[in-house]
């Protein structure tokens, strides 16, 4: 069986979008992908946003072990080597990132921050649902890519094409 592609999703706080992306890709990716997430400024308490966990659980996606992590956890030589790093928020995309071991493919997929939505609790929950739905659609496309023997440049091109 071929080695799974390691994918790291980055966001600023690693509490909503990147956590959802990690969970969804691990849910859909089977043996072909292994997803991780991190933040450029991860939450000190390491807890994902409660609505993140609520919408993932409601969708039947495993939430055990999800925590907010700093991107530095993945920049060390003994960390899993990433094949693809995807920023999922515009703020993180504009921040300096470490040099990743193995020089993975890089892409940016822009999603609004559901935790910034003002409104009543139902409106806030709906923002998280919409973000999860959008991520799920893109992950379905990612897992359908023919990745056998794909080099870094082609992977990067395909991941960037999915952003459109």
Automatic annotation (TrEMBL):
GO terms for biological process: response to arsenic-containing substance. It holds the Pfam family LMWPc. CDD domains: LMWP_ArsC. It comes from the Bacteria. Residues 5-145 form the Phosphotyrosine protein phosphatase I domain. The keyword Protein biosynthesis does not apply. This is Protein-tyrosine-phosphatase. Signal peptide: none annotated. InterPro entries: Ptyr_pPase, Ptyr_pPase_sf. Keywords: Arsenical resistance. The keyword Nucleotide-binding does not apply.
């Amino acid at each position: 069986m071929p080695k799974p592609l390691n994918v790291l999703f980055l966001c600023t706080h690693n509490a909503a979008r990147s956590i959802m992306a990690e969970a969804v890709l691990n849910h859909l990716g089977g043996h072909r992908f292994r997803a991780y997430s991190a933040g450029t400024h991860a939450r000190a308490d390491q807890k994902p946003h409660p609505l993140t966990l609520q919408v993932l659980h409601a969708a039947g996606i495993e939430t055990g072990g999800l925590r907010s992590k700093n991107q530095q956890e993945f920049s060390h030589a003994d960390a899993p080597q990433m094949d693809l790093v995807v920023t999922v928020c515009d703020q993180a995309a504009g921040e300096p990132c470490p040099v990743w071991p193995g020089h993975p493919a890089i892409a940016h997929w822009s999603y609004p921050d559901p935790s910034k939505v003002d409104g009543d609790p139902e409106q806030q929950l709906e923002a998280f649902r919409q973000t999860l739905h959008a991520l799920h659609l893109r992950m379905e496309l990612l897992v359908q890519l023919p990745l056998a023997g794909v080099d870094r440049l082609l992977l990067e091109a395909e991941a960037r094409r999915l952003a459109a």
